[in-house]
Amino acid sequence: MTAHPQSTILVGVDGSPNANVAAAWAVEIGRRLDAPVEAVVAWTELPPPYVDGVDEHVAEMNTHVAEVMTQALDGDALDGINVTAVQGPTADVLLSTADEKEAAMLVVGTRGLGPLAGLLLGSISRRLLFTTQRPLVVVPRRAPPHAQELTRVLVGVDCSPIARRVLSWSAGFCADLGVPATIVRCASPGCERPPGLVERVDGRVRSEAEEALEGFRDLGVGYTIAIAHCDPRVALVENATSDQAGLIVIGSRGEGQFRGLGGTASYLARHSPVPIAVIP
């Protein structure tokens, strides 16, 4: 984010309240980053009497869908967002449009009522999470209808290679927003140890975390380190609540306690009180 402050933030919309909540989050972040926000909506079938495959009919439908979606956003006080309508499967449209616009991040909501319905519950979510080459922000359905000010970012990392990318992105994002971070590391949750050994393990984990946070120090980003002794998914939710964080950042395909989006990301999509950012 720091290197490309003007990069587009792309948000997927479908006219549902949850998609508009995601759009509101994108607009707020775009305002603070001085980055343009654009929306894309996918549609699949032409209604009668249009003939599928006729370029003129597809172009006309694109215009119509974009106008309808623009009106829906305007009605939710999200006027001014440029909306593009594209025919095709939702995941394909989101991925291709993000690549075409070289988006800095792709933002989506959960449990939409239109083409994006069940985004994190089926094949669309898995494809986005595992194939996008751009940061993906998922705004949960339980998020408030109006974007709250983001004042702290929670970063969940382990000792895997992807953690370096997560920390690098998070440091730049926090620097651009001017907010501090909480770095969550888990010390082998679920294992009982003598009290003396717990302190030594915590000390080692804290030292490892400090070594990896040079990027935060270089950019002048304030941070605290939280060592958790429970399931990482639970630790992230609990720390996000206690620290009043506005965003949880995790990596895809981690190799430590945070490995596998099937566990961490899908759990957070159901239980996180705040948006989550998944770094590929």
Fold and architecture overview:
With 280 residues, the protein is an alpha/beta fold. It folds into two domains: 9-139, Rossmann fold (3-Layer(aba) Sandwich), CATH 3.40.50; 153-279, Rossmann fold, CATH 3.40.50. 41% of the residues lie in helices and 18% in strands. It contains nine helices and ten strands. It has a ten-stranded mixed beta sheet with strand order 3-2-1-4-5-10-9-6-7-8, sandwiched between helices. α8 packs parallel to α9. The two termini are 14 Å apart.
What helical percentage do the residues reach?
40-55%
Uncertain segments:
112-122, 254-262
Strand % is 15-25%
Question: What overall geometry do the principal axes of the alpha carbons give?
Answer: elongated
CATH third-level topology of the largest domain: Rossmann fold
Sum this structure up briefly:
With 280 residues, the chain is an alpha/beta fold.
Key descriptive features of the protein:
280 residues, Rossmann fold, ten-stranded mixed beta sheet, 9 helices, 41% helix
Topology of this structure?
Blueprint: E1 9-12, H1 17-33, E2 37-43, H2 55-75, E3 82-87, H3 90-100, E4 105-109, H4 123-131, E5 136-139, E6 153-156, H5 161-177, E7 181-186, H6 195-211, H7 214-218, E8 223-228, H8 232-242, E9 247-251, H9 264-271, E10 276-279
Parallel strand pairs: 1-2, 1-4, 2-3, 4-5, 6-7, 6-9, 7-8, 9-10
Antiparallel strand pairs: 5-10
Helix pairs in contact: 3-4, 8-9
